[in-house]
Amino acid sequence: MIGSGVVIRIGALSFRLRSGLGFVADGVHHLYHHHPMSQDGFADFSVEVGPPRSLRRWFGRQACFRHDGASTFLPLPRDQALPLLEWGLNWCVYEHVQDRLVLHAAVVEKEERALIIPAPPGSGKSTLVAGLSCAGWRLLSDELALLTWTGGQVEGLCRPISLKNASIGVLRGIAGEEPFSPTVTDTLKGDVALMRPPRASVERAEEPARPFAVVFPSFSFGTAPSMMELGPAMAFGKLLENAFNVSALREKGFSALGNLVDHCCCYCIEYGSLADGMALVQDIHRAGRV
Amino acid sequence: MGHEREPLLVAMLKDPVRVGELELSQWDTVIRQARVNRLLGTLAHFLSEEGLWLQIPCAPRRHLDWALRITQTHRAELEWELFSIAEALGSLDTPVVLLKGAAYHAAGMKASIGRLFGDVDLLVERRALGAVEAALMQHGWVNTHHDPYDQRYYRQWMHELPPMQHIRRGTILDVHHSIVPPTARLKVDPGQLISASVAVNDCPFRVLAPEDMFLHSATHLFFSEGEMPHGSRDLVDLYLMAGTKADEAFWRRVQARATALGLEEPLVLAVYFLDRLMGVALPREIRAWAVGTLPGGVRGWMLRGALDSALRVRDSHHRTMADSLKKGYLIVRGHREKMPFPLLVRHLGRKAWYGIFPEKYGRDAGR
User: Which UniProt key words apply to this protein (chain B) (predicted)?
Assistant: First the structure.
């Protein structure tokens, strides 16, 4: 990844990654092991993770994320370079993509029914989709869902899942140690580890899916599982909070979101354990079959 | 004047038909250059207007399509903004001249195509400033600089009011009474600009006469803050205003107007860099005049080197150490051009003092 970098294809987009930091290169090769990589060609985004360019590089051990050579975030401690890269790749997508409505949401699919799971950080979204991806669901995305204008198709960005704190141990128990990056401690979000997406999901990364339900999860340790159906207006409002480019897209973005809630059943779920959460999602999925 | 090897982006802007020759790895460079230099929307519009859209491979075409969508949003937002400003100022009996991006848009100029619009800039007569400011405040624009020193800085020394922000939309409006600060070395009589300005069809605003617009754009580029965050984009504006043919009558008018307004210095620099970096078609006499009038000596050499670095199309936002030094030089030069040295020292000293001891002067009181 030193020199001109590698171009990684992630769904319909490609990223040229460059880093002079050895552990970042190792991490990328481990986490993107199943993704198609090449040395050259067209890349949608050229990014880089490395030490700051200012004098600061000689004092703190820091890392910066740069897109087209410009630093987009404040530098972070160097051991957080890998999560920083992932946050940066998300930024590239939600800042630039304008032919899809970009939602802050995870997407999983089984039997041609996709679930869109929008949620603020800390609501257990990533843990839930990591669990589902280990139970035979196809992972389309952990962070960003790209919705077509009709609201009839959703595209993912099948990339590593970012797990935090206690979830890391839970998922290691299910998936084993192998797919994980080293855990980074003391980030803004606590401990963070990245989990490689399953090979089967990566191989189908360019395939869109048909949204079937929108699920707003809320995890709170020990809570009894419960489910509540939401009306389209309520779901629309909640989705709006998770839409990045709806104002830039104007009417188009607004109607894409409207079409989505018209076509989907929308639910809020509460649960106190991963198993309960997964069971609720299975129920929603099954209910659609009737 | 020496010519640089032309960056791919410049070649495509000048001769869009050549996109058919590009390989995918060259597209990677063109898209990156266009995005870094804020010219992606311009390129996208040029290619689509020339009917070349389908010759572009899918992956780069998607970026151009994103840029088209963003520029459409920007245009719609600018139009709404201009409508709101017209509503606020409509009842005042004073000419309101749009400057820069908003003017290019209102006048339907090529330089407005595919553009990203930021703040709106207006030029009004100095004696109308109070009425304009009051009318804007009644319609939701508020002053952004609450600090007494900043207020004084703008009102006493600058050529504009402190920037005004709309309280609900958050948009910024700069109300100017001249195109250079009264303290600047270059002296311009804004009355001449306003009286030569022309009305715009179907809109209550005026725009500068074409030659004045070119001269203002050059003055803004070469004689404002000096930072030049979008140097190459601004040079492309000048390129689009100059046209692709060596129009002798146009250049003669611009040159005569520059002499009348005292804006020969910015014109010389504009001609020199349009020739050097954009390869603009120029009549021989104007080219010879620019070369002959260009600042010479060590200072001229440093200025040309620094401007060369600031106006060049970049592949990346990254600046080498040499580029950073040149940028620093331009900032210092920009400030020296803006106010006489004793005033500059006083101003920077004040700023530094407030920066270190904000509480002493109650700067943050009430915040």
Answer: Transferase
